[in-house]
Design goal:
Blueprint (H helix, E strand, L loop, with lengths): L6 E5 L7 E3 L20 E10 L5 E3 L4 E5 L7 E4 L5 E2 L5 E6 L4 E7 L7 E2 L6 E4 L4 E10 L5 E3 L3 E6 L7 E4 L13 E4 L5
Parallel strand pairs: 7-14
Antiparallel strand pairs: 1-2, 1-3, 3-4, 3-5, 6-8, 8-11, 9-10, 9-12, 12-13, 12-14, 15-16
Length: about 190
Amino acid sequence: SYIAGATYEYSTDNQATWNVLSVSGSPTTFTIPFTNSSTSEVTHDVYVRATNSPCATVVSATAVTVTVNPAPVTGTASLTTANPACEGANNVVVTLVGSAGTIDWEQSTNGGVSYSSLAVSSATLTLTRTAGTYYYRAKVTTSGGCTAYSNPVSVVVKANFTAVPTLSATTSTTICTGGSVSFSAAWTPYV
């Protein structure tokens, strides 16, 4: 039961150290942040205790074990084709180096505001794209289900001309010195 004025604490290191809880009743809920800077999972045994000094201290009979998975190693994404690129087959190639986990490439066509999955899981992403600006990043997921994202890379794809330009004179091409000739030129597509 709850006793006003008592000290309520929790431990995440098998009772080696204790941290004070702010408790105003029983039951109480609280949140503990956990981190893991190693490359393998880490477990923490969480206990709670209450003390109403000078009376006895009571400790939870069993611990709640928390498993903290390591953060994904996202690696570095880089564009391995020209930027800007031209329209054409396999004109965008992005490579992810140094990642650890399952890869899911994502694409944004709105400046990196939102991304959607491309359902490509290899370290190299090869695409054929039409004119526009595209952003790519890799979503990397560990076996424990933790997710992080690589750096985004952007590429501008420029339109190709689809035909030889046409040129014709719109006025006489036989002129006297100092005269002018008018021309009409057309490119397909004109963007």
